[in-house]
Amino acid sequence: RSDGRLVSTAVSPYPTILQNYVSKTSWDDAVRLCRFVKDGALWASLAAMATAAKELNTAEIAYAAINETEKVEYISYIKDISNKAARNAEMSLFCKQTGEAEGTLLQGGLVYRAIRLNIDLFRWNRALELAVKHKTHVDTVLAFRQKYLQDFGLEESDNLFTQYRYRN
Asked: What distances in angstroms separate CA 99 from CA 55, 74, 81, 96, 106, one per listed residue?
C-alpha cells in the first residue's frame, strides 16, 4: 500500500500443485487433487490443461465435474473415432485450431473430411479450392453451396462458384 502498511492475503497452494502434476503428466494425481479440493476453478484449470495436452480421459472427467455436458459428449464422440487422423483433427477442432484440423485430415488422406470440414464452417472458397486441387467432390461442394443459398433465399454472388457450376 502507498502508506507503507502491509496487506496480508492467502494464496492457495493447489494451483501450483496441479501445475506440477500436469507438467509431469501425472493425470491421475491431478484428478485426485481436484477431487480432494472440490473447487470448480481447479477443475476448470485441469480441464483446460488436459484439453491442451489432448489427454481425453482427464479432460472428460474434469468437464464432467464442472457440468460441461456438451463438452463431455463431444469428447466421448472423439474417443469413439477409430481413425487416428480423424480423431486428432476433431481434437484440434475442439481446441479451435481449424487450420491444424484441416492439415491433419489432408495428411491422413481424408480429403472428403477436409472438404466437409470447410463446408460445415461455411468456408466455401476453401472447400472449393480443396475439391478442385484434389480433383474430387467439386459437385458436392457446389450442391452444399446451392442448398445453403436456397435455404436463405440468396442468389450466387461468387463468380468462381458460378463458373464451376456451368463447367460441371
From this structure: 20, 19, 20, 9, 11
Residue given cell 460441461 in the structure block: 68
8 A C-beta contact, residue 21 and residue 30 = yes
Contact 144, 125 (CB under 8 A): no
8: left (phi over 0), alpha (psi -120 to 50) or beta: beta
Q: For the chain (length 168 residues), average pLDDT per consecutive 10?
A: 79 95 98 97 98 96 98 97 96 95 97 98 97 96 96 93 83
CA distance 79 to 88: 10
Backbone φ and ψ of 6, nearest 5°: -90, 145
User: How many Å apart are CA 101 and CA 98, to the nearest integer?
Assistant: 5
Looking at 4-136, list the stretches that DSSP marks H as alpha helix, in order from N- to C-terminal side.
14-23, 27-37, 40-52, 56-65, 69-79, 84-94, 98-107, 111-120, 124-133
Cell of 101: 484440423
- Please tell me the pTM assigned to this model: 0.81
